[in-house]
Input
Amino acid sequence: MAGEKILVVDDEANIVDLARMYLERDGFQVCEASDGVQALQEIKQQKPDLIVLDIMLPEIDGFEVCQRVRAESEVPIIMLTARDDDVDKIVGLELGADDYMTKPFNPRELVARVKTILRRMERTPREDTTPLDLGDLSIDPASREVRVDGEMVNLRTKEFDLLLTFCEHRSIVLTREQLLELVWGFDFYGQTRTVDVHVANLRKRLSNSKNVRIETVTGVGYKLVCE
Output
């Protein structure tokens, strides 16, 4: 894993220096940017393996940077927010971020999350690529295409992985912690809001299906129900 290139984007030099010190100590290459415009330039030129992206940036904020990156790439993104509330986190996740951390953060935890996400990216693809047909919902794991009643549904990478995981465990209740491990590859950091946001987005994408729905099991988690 060591040697991957990490782009750290933050306008606070002490944050960048701290992240660089701990990431380089673990063998990562680190490049940096201090505003949104520079971040987009560095992403294009450096082609990082993962981006640590602050939300409050000069020129172009982190939300817009994330949105532009997601229009062209699935490179993992960890967003940084200085506010300990759900608003920034939910917006970032809805735009396609993989994880988020609240500043000030423990640099050792940042390194641990970087390693976990990159490890998940290296996982061997599923061997079973047999298409799944669940009523009016069809899923092709090989092409990663999803259709509802014949109409294509565009899913982001995590949304597709989440749907496929639900289908492989249909009618079984999965806890948020289990979904974090199965879909994101995370050890449980307490970031179950990540799951909730992606389930909400997936429900919207599948809202036209008459046969498949994702049910909330209060106090436990979620399950896929096929009718």
